[in-house]
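Throughout this chapter, every protein is written as a compact record of paired, labelled lines. An example of such a record is reproduced below:
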Amino acid sequence: MPIRLQNIRPLQPDPLLLRQVLDEGDRLRILSGKMVGSPPHISLQLTEGRKREIKRLFAHFELAVVRLLRQSIGPVELGNLRQGTLERTTSAELKILRDFVQETAESD
């Protein structure tokens, strides 16, 4: 999930060093991430990504998210799916998602 940020300052802590933040009673977590490119983009893997989780997490570091793109849902890649469009989930994708959800639930 590439994220473009603004207001990056050199002395700020790297937001990827902190793996979780408590906000409004929610634990906001990043599973993995890296900063790439110019202008800076961050690619993240999240636990859930709900309730504006990314924007709330980066707000703790006084960073504004100006662009956010979802690349996958679990192990299922979205490919070239454009904003606002729908596409049927294939039987294979449903099986992959069910297996992923079951594995995730068992590991918690």
Remarks:
- The chain is about 20% helix and 30% strand.
- Residues 6 and 64 are 5 Å apart (CA to CA).
- Helices lie at 53-59, 91-107.
- The first strand starts at residue 2 and ends at 6.
